[in-house]
Design brief:
The chain has 492 residues and is of the alpha/beta class. The radius of gyration is 48 Å and the shape is elongated.
């Protein structure tokens, strides 16, 4: 045993006479050893007389003389003496070990490992697309919390002295941008909506999620903020974001959805299955064989064999500025240089006039309401005139003053009430519903619109049978008018 202290005690067990006690030789020696931490005492008996027996009381007395007072194992000592196992070492006393405190620890509310967790499809294949790499959090989400250090318990050594426990270590957050700590210091919260990140043992939140490509390495992206993709979005993958989506490469047959704007630098080939939906504008170098829907406007250099729907306008700019094949539908303006082609399939352009027609219904309803209000206004003005006449009659009547005042007061109250009603009628009559010029909803072709192009503007349809150039098409209320462009039509 390390760092032990050994004390030897010689006990002489004889009879009652002091003289005899002094003359007798000791029959055994008691040796002890105390462990370095003072939590164990080891006893060994050395027999000087091989027939000698050791009384356990002698061992207890010996321990007391050595100031060993705690954790004495009396039953073990009795058994030791009873079995006469003197040559063996005996643990005669055991102290109470201290229970050390528990270190504080940080518990994370999201998976901080970089290990990809691949999911298995029902058919046994591995799903490499839904990797759940994006950890979406909203403002106020608990990112991690601290379980405080816990106290321990002191021990007692064989001498009855206190053995202090080791205190647990405290923990603190290593945090970065867009996070904040609770007042008690135990919780770390997200300061914004975004993506929780854990890098270099630091927790932070980003409102822009950045990747190089969307493919098997990233899986599909579903993010609460904006997404920036430095490369391409591969076929079969999806990108869904609450904020903007900016793609610096190209999009293949993928699904893109944004609650804001979508920008694709190199264009999209949807392969007949790719699609984009945006609540904001969609801007792409070109769009081919895809389905596109924007609640605002679509901007591109070319639309090829695609179905495009815009809540506002479709604007084609650039070298080609062409719509070839497919269907392009907008509420206000479709603007292009070239529409269709001699060898290409049918191209459909649609100006819905849905908002215009809804507005016209409101205008018609307003006209009908105004007609009723004007009739009601005539009635109310007649009532006011009749009240004025009654007041004059009362004042010139033979009624006593009290009755005159009473009736006059009632008539005046009626007049005030009717005047208020007249004021409200006049207010409604002066309400103006914004009017829209039907000619502002138009198709502009500043180059050539080839035959086999079909136009739909509101309730009117027109099939182009001969090429049209440098023209504007709109619904004049009776037919689709086709007129030459003027400089104002090109100012978009």
């Amino acid at each position: 045993m390390d760092n032990t202290n050994t004390n030897n005690q010689n006990l002489n067990i004889t009879g009652d006479s002091p003289d005899i006690f002094q003359d007798e030789q000791p029959k055994y020696k008691i040796n002890h050893l105390v462990s370095a931490n003072k939590l164990k005492v080891y006893i060994r008996i050395e027999l000087l007389d091989q027939k000698a027996e050791v009384d356990y009381e002698d061992i207890l007395s010996y321990l007391a003389e050595q100031n060993i007072v705690y954790g004495i194992r009396e039953e073990e000592i009795k058994c030791y003496c009873g079995r006469k196992e003197y040559s063996k070492e005996l643990i005669a006393a055991v102290g109470k070990e201290p229970i050390n405190g528990i270190d504080a620890r940080i518990v994370y509310g999201f998976d901080t490992s970089k290990e990809k967790k691949l999911k298995e499809n029902a058919d046994g294949t591995i799903d490499f697309r839904n990797l759940d790499n994006v950890i979406n959090v909203t403002k106020g989400t608990v990112l991690c919390h601290i379980i405080p250090a816990q106290d321990g318990e002191n021990g007692i050594d064989v001498y009855g002295e206190t053995v202090p426990y080791k205190r647990g270590n405290n923990a603190s957050f290593n945090y970065g941008n867009n996070t904040y700590i609770s007042n008690d210091g135990l919780f770390l919260f997200a300061g914004i909506d975004g993506c929780a990140e854990f890098k270099n043992d630091k927790v932070f939140v980003e409102n822009i999620y950045r990747v190089n490509h969307v493919d098997n390495t990233t899986g599909n992206i579903d993010f609460i903020g904006s997404v920036v993709i430095n490369g391409d979005v591969k076929e079969g993958f999806s990108v869904n974001a609450k904020g903007d989506i900016k793609i610096r490469g190209m999009v293949e047959g993928a699904y893109i959805k944004s609650d804001s704007d979508v920008v694709i630098s190199k264009g999209m080939n949807g392969m007949g299955k790719g699609s984009i939906y945006a609540k904001g504008n969609i801007t792409s170098k070109y769009i081919e064989n895809a389905s596109i829907e924007s609640e605002k406007s679509v901007f591109a250099e070319a639309l090829i064999n695609s179905n495009v729907v815009a809540g506002d306008s479709i604007i084609l700019r650039g070298t080609s500025s062409a719509i070839i094949g497919g269907t392009s539908q907008a509420e206000n303006i479709i603007y292009a240089k070239t529409v269709g082609g001699r060898t290409n399939p049918e191209t459909n352009l649609i100006i819905t006039l849905a908002k215009y027609q809804a507005e016209q219904k409101l205008i018609d309803a307003k006209k009908r309401l105004n007609y009723q209000l004007e009739k009601e206004l005539i009635v109310k003005n007649n009532e006011i005139r009749e009240i004025d006449e009654k007041i004059d009659l009362i004042l010139n009547s033979s009624l006593d003053n009290d009755n005159k005042n009473s009736v006059q007061k009632q008539l005046l109250f009626m007049k005030i009430k009717i005047n208020n009603e007249i004021y409200e009628i006049k207010r409604q009559l002066t309400e103006i519903i914004p009017t829209d010029n039907i000619a502002d909803h138009k198709i502009i072709c500043k180059g050539i619109m080839y035959s086999n192009t079909r136009l739909t503007i509101g309730w009117m349809k027109y099939r182009v049978r001969q090429d049209i150039s440098y023209s504007k098409m709109y619904n004049d209320g009776n037919d689709i008018s086709i007129v030459p462009l003027n400089p104002a039509d090109l100012e978009l």
